[in-house]
Amino acid sequence: MDSSFFEIAEEDARLHTIAKDHFAQGNSTKALEVLEDAYSRRGKDNSPGMFHFLQGSILYHLAKRAENSDMKFAFFLGCVESFTGDFGTHAFSACALLEMAKQLDSALYYKKAVKDAEVTLSLLESGGELDSFELESKRTLTNILKEAEIRILRGFTGKNSETPLEESKEVRVRIGSDSNKAADKRLRSHWASMSVEAKKNFMKVSISKLRSYVERLHGEEGKDALEEVLDSARTGKKWRFYMCRTCSQKFFHVKKFRNHLEQEHGAKFKPARRKLMPQLVNEMWVDMILVGGWEPVDAVAAAEMIKTRLEYVKRFVYENGWSKDWPLAADEERSKLLKEIQFLLVSLWERKVLPFTTLEWMMEFPILAQFEVTESLIIECGLVGTLQRICFWDCHELKRILDLLKPNKFERDDGTYLVCRAVERLWGLTRVKEKIEFDDQFSSMLLDKRLLRGKIASFDDEGTIDVCKYDYYVKTHPQGDDIITWLLDYPSIEGSFEFPRSVRAHNLDIWVAILGAIHYTCRDLASKYVKKLENLDYYRALIDAENLCTNEDERRRIAPEGEGDILYASVLGDMCEELKTDDGAAPSRLVLVFVVRDILEGASHPTFDLDDLEACLISIHGHQNLSDDKVSKSIDHLKFVVTNKVLLADSKILLIENSRISLLNELTRLSVFDYRSYIGSLLKRFMREELDGLVKMDAKAKVAAAEADLLSREKQEKEKKSVSKNKKRRIIKRTSTSKSTDIEQNVEHESSPPLKPVEEDCVEPKDSLSGELGGLDISANTDNQEETAKDMQNMPGEDILSKHMESPHVAAATRCNLALDMTLKALCNIKGVKEYLVRNRHQFADNQEGQVPYALRDFFTAFASNEVKEEGIYSYLLGNVFASLEEVHSMSSDAAELLVSILEFWPCWKTPDIESFVTHIFTLEEYERMSCSKCRKNPNYPEQSSYGVVMDADSIRDLKCVFENMKLEDILKLIRMEYTMLCDIKTEGCGKANFIHHIISRCPPIFTIVLIWEKNETANEIHETTKALDWEIDISKLYQGLEPNTKYRLVSMVGCGEEEEYICLAFKKNRWVSFRHEALAKKAVGSWTNVVRFCEKMKVRPEILFYEAVQLPNK
Question: Pick the residue with more confidence: 696 or 209?
């Protein structure tokens, strides 16, 4: 055998393994890309069955997962073609057909499911002993067969009972409205202050700056993707193009692209004899159908006129094939039948299923023959090529026409409209309203000047690029700030297609499914075409039989008197015997034998049973004495039946062809790719960053002015203080191992300056409430303490929420403050945190930079010194932290994000003498290791830092429900085992997916777990999830490099209840307690079982879990 055969087989196996691995890792798009590459090189018909089966499995899996019913149907339809091309003995194809049948309540797919199940079952039964998979397939197919047959017997409505699931049109609006409103206000304010020229210059996007931005964000991958976009725009001068997802070719003209799909990728059925494909009636015949009078003609009077006044009849005028000169008959029944025929013809034409062969057959009926009017006279009268011939027929002939037209289907219940609806939704997501032009040097992108004047209403579906040699914005006058709305509208939706992903991957899965649906439709066309050929061969055999009988009539006419007549049945039987003995007879001639059998047996329909020739001849000889009249009637009947079948087949072929064209149109729309939608979010982020830079520059200028003004005011205030004798005064004494220092502090109750610079140091660094980290002793008399506490409650920082109540963002600010309060309480109730702060109080840095570290230092100093005993002081400290975070950081009401914000600012506490607080207490220094099981490579990945792990709450709940006795650490380990890493091909790896080994070099005192919730869980789901959270875990099960039984215990957590009401739960003195907002008092909850009940009752979803090491190992 040729060695190339083994090489091809080996390559096929390799590609199949790669695609299968991608699919196993959940990357169905990558798997489909590998398969489409293989099809592009080999051709789909020449590819092995395992490719088809894998592709079908992927599409079947996508159908099962799809939430949108239209997408689900499209995936099922696509997978049927793949499974059909596999020729395997499995039930997947029949299952998909049954699913589609149920969704549509479609007789078509129920019948296809029955046929598919019967064929596969016959293959299984003829294959000998079955393995377990084949036995399971047989059971499934048997059930499908029973269910489909029962459903067929009950009948169908043809209506889709399932309401299509539509993507919420409010998604983008909702995400946009939930964006950072503070940033929105700041950008709009700055935009309003910009000059007209500055606004115009801002709309010019520097390509060199954009390149740098992309390279910084996405590296070489992003740089290459951007260059591809720019090269296409430069050469094609269009943003929109058509991409073939199979071979990755680009087209800018739709006709060329459609021809490519039809010629190269089998998107059109190509019959062996093209002339036998039915053609639609043309416009001339359509006009004839629509404008005709369709009134019955008086046949007796018309025949008399032709016989006696032929010259007069020849002068009749025909307009659009109809003449008003023929005498009409007052026949209500014929008139009604003619109107019904016209209605059916119009209906078939409107749905593009009226073949010209139907009209041809109708006009071949003889007219006026019973009145001895020859066909030659009919031709002389102009009744050729006109539908008015039909109006000469009697009721019997008109009913035959209706019997032919009524079985035609106006629609095919194949669900094509569902596929069209799915594509419409996807196509709408890629449409763009804004034009983007270039300058003549291609150094800048010029954004649509209409954005400067307001919102753009219409979509630009052309995508043509203009190269501007003049000032594009010269006649544009900016109005309003809608450009800011456009800039901020780039929601990051999970699963969305964004730069710099491969363009080919865009909608690849549904594209492959629809191409498969087209192939499946072409398969139906081929089946109908074959049936039509069978009927045509049968009809020709009938004509041959009829000609034999006609020849016998002619022989009898000229035969000498006394010579015996031979019956038609005997003549036909003799011809069949000759064909039997003729070894060189063509198969089409042998069809005559079976046709003669049907004629003599008086069959109502063609049998097409061409298996047993001997049995057929025996039956023919058994009917040798059949009368000529019965033979003639049988031939006429079968001719009519077969003619009906041929014409009906033409109509069905056109019906299926309409579905193919509809699917091809949708595939063409789905193939459109607009680079503007591809880089749209990237451009907006880049321009947002540019505008933020302008805002910061402006802010720095204002800060400098404000600082100068602030220094001047402070100088004036100090002069006033030195004169005043009535100011409040207290002495704070710091105890230290070094010599003591008395610090004089004046506490002023005045409002804060109107502008606080982001990067400014605190105004009086040593005048903080709590002093430095360490044991503080506030020495003052009782009256002074009471007065100070009272004053604290009236300080502006304490009532930060009251100040925000005046803001339109009060609800968001309140939620954020609540989340911040509970997060800080959870941190404060970790024993290790407090001990670490107290232990290192003498080495605490005093030179903090920025408002946030200063406020955090005040808060935790007071906490470590046990000063926070009154709610007024606590509110003041919390308000300072909230205000300082709000000024320099995008605030969020999400507790996990706030925790990260706090921990990100804490590294500022690092001093030369001690390790950063966050690094020591919270940070995990983690290594990821992967040892390829195939090529044995061990790539080295750098160490990475994190504050803990993030897990989906529903994943924990689902696994706990399945494995009731599994501990939390084993559940987390099982979830993390799903994370795999490919052996990098770029570094000479093999591309195989491998498990990741997690290694930590140091065991932190605190281990943090963040749970992600859907926010719509029921009380029972919250109960089941909380019950799965063990009080004690062993993290050596999660990370390598630790001693066995490295135990951690849950000490505090932050939860979120209904309406985003946050709560803190902490373990203190052998029981769990709960804390409320801005309240120092705690409320007892009890044991962990009580915590689970508490969370269920109050619908509290635990979001942040703080586990503390029971005893840190030596390592």
Answer: 209
